[in-house]
Amino acid sequence: MKLIKNHTKLKKLSRHKFKNLCLAVLIVGMALLFSACKNSLGNVLYRNTALSQSSDIAVNADNLLGTWVSPDADNQILKIDSSEVTFNYRTFSYTVNGNELELYQTYPYQGGIEGSMPYELDGDELTITLGSAFEGYFYGRSGTVVLVRK
Fold first, then answer.
1. CB 3.0 to 4.6 Å from 142: which of 47, 50, 129, 135, for a disulfide?
2. Tens digit of pLDDT for each residue in 11-53?
3. CA dist 96 to 10, 105, 112, 117, Å?
4. Shortest CA distance to 67 belongs to which of 57, 77, 52?
5. Sign of the four-CA dihedral 45, 48, 54, 56
6. pLDDT digits 0-9 by tens, 60-119
7. Exposure string (b/e) for 46-66, b if CB count within 10 Å is 16 or more?
């Protein structure tokens, strides 16, 4: 009789340990699953944020396209198309980097003037900052120039 009681206690103890083991495995498994989901979700959110930022830059670059004129001197023209920027008989290839135009002169001679030209776009008003690289080359002007869409 004593042997049967001990066997029953052992069964109960084993069941208890088995339940605890299952619970521990379940908790660890859930923790790993949540961790994997969190990392995946973080990567998706990061990718979506990066895509959103790059599409914002693309939209901003598209808004730059066109002909811009100085309101105080209508012969001071800045033309921006999908591959080139032209002003004062000079042509530049360009890229948009945030709120800066990175310009590389291609005409009248390649590699002449290059640098970054910060800008602010507000509807049909474009403000460019010439900086030391372009000072004097934009129709003899320096500093900040305000242009309006033609």
1. 135
2. 665 666 767 655 666 677 666 655 554 544 444 444 444 444 4
3. 74, 15, 19, 10
4. 77
5. negative
6. 678 999 999 999 988 999 999 999 999 999 999 999 999 999 999 998 877 789 999 999
7. eeeeeeeeeeeeeeebeebee
The reply to whether the predicted model has a pTM over 0.85 is: no
Give burial (CB, 10 Å; 0-12/13-18/19+) of 119: buried
Hey, what are 17's tokens?
A: 């340990």
